[in-house]
Specification:
There is one protein chain. By secondary structure, the protein is an all-alpha fold. Among the domains are: 92 residues, no CATH class; 75 residues. 72% of the residues lie in helices and 0% in strands. It has 16 helices and no strands. Helix 11 packs antiparallel against helix 12. The longest helix is centred in the C-terminal third of the chain and has 41 residues. It starts with 11 loop residues before the first helix and ends in a 5-residue tail after the last helix.
Amino acid sequence: MRIGLRALCVGVLGLATGFAEPSEPEPAEVAARARMLGAKFGGGRRCDPAAFVEVAALRRAHGVQGTVGKAAALAYRGCDDAVAWAELFAARIRDDDTDADRIQLAAAWIAAGRFAQAYAVALPLARAHGPQSQAAWLTGYALFGLDDREGAAPWLLGARGTVEGKKRSDAPVMLALVQQHAGDTDAAVAELRAAIERMPQSASLHAVLAAVQQAGGDEASARDSAAMARRLAEASEREARARARLTNLGASWREALQTGDPGAAGLLDALVEAGPADRVRALISAQVRELQRAGHTDAAGALQQRMRTLPVR
């Protein structure tokens, strides 16, 4: 029941810019290096493995505050390292931080799969803010992660309004399973069917529905749901392979352009064929901007002309 760090709404970018300045000024060369490395993660939207290693070394040498802390936050988010992000966040929490900061820390521990730490942070906040609060939802989530469905149920059901209607599969799955645990299979099935209406392509929702239906004795419906889950999972796997191929082709094409490899034209043809056209356009547009910045206007113009010929798919 873990969800990705990027998907977890914990306000990462706001926190990344909110790191306190170190008690002693950072050496200018350290701050400059941290800023340069942090920029490689695209505001926390992409991963640069080589820069990640360097940022981790800077953090070990210089701590978690200031420019180094900001770079580390962007690196951990960009590379979706939920454990490192939660540990970084916990290390910079101070006594005077707000409840909102601590709620986000609990969410970060959940994203990292550290449910005991999340529960320890969330429970006092849930008691302070009430059973319908975000902190209450996180308390239930942590208990669910600790395999205490009975303990999780009142918190999750009470705070369901904080996640109601959102397109995230973890919430309806937990709500359904605590209701099934309480003996209300009909409510569990209804919960999952409502979620599937919002997210019909979610293989995990169909798979959990199949398990709930099977446990409730509805074997025919369970078979149908399981078959749908398999079809969706296979389609998702095909799509993931296609995305990976497009990414690899794009990287090879950019490298060929930079090194003057005559095979660049063939790689671009393969990239266009791999599609989809909108993603290929985005890749070419990024390369055009890079060429323009480097002053290679003729090469940039040729790529722009090629981009105009891309098929509409």
